[in-house]
């Protein structure tokens, strides 16, 4: 169950970051979002165990944080509210929160720019 929640959170986070960074790039004919999510999850699975656990734990805290602030888990929130949550963590006074968002955003941008997604 925790793995499913983690995967849903990563998926929602990736979708939100794609929508924020690459708004005009998506077309109804080709929807690469799922391949981006798979890439991010694969990169996490390649990490050593001592990095996987803290990343998973912090991601789950991010998921639950939405419950405290907005009344629902992050992955259950509408896209506009998700953007607010991401921006709150990007601008957090805590470095670890900013680093988590930077980690996910970096992987999303890396995949998006490295592969011929929108041809």
How is this structure best described in words?
The protein is an all-alpha fold. It has helices at 2-21, 33-45, 49-70, 79-90, 95-114. Helix 1 crosses helix 2 (33-45), helix 1 crosses helix 3 (49-70) and helix 1 crosses helix 4 (79-90). It is globular, with a radius of gyration of 14 Å. The mean pLDDT is 88.
List key phrases describing it.
single chain; 119 residues; mainly alpha; 73% helix; 0% strand; globular
Q: What's the Cα radius of gyration?
A: 14 Å
**Helix fraction bin:** over 70%
Shape: globular
Q: What percentage of amino acids are in beta strands?
A: under 5%
The overall pLDDT, averaged over residues, is 88
Count every helix, treating DSSP H or I runs of 4 or more residues as helices. 5
Distance between the termini: 37 Å
Order of helices and strands: HHHHH
Number of strands: 0
What is the topology?
Layout: H1 2-21, H2 33-45, H3 49-70, H4 79-90, H5 95-114
Helix pairs in contact: 1-2, 1-3, 1-4, 1-5, 2-5
Write a compact overview of the structure shown.
The chain is mainly alpha-helical and 119 residues long. Helix 1 packs across helix 2 and helix 1 crosses helix 4. Helices cover 73% and strands 0% of the residues.
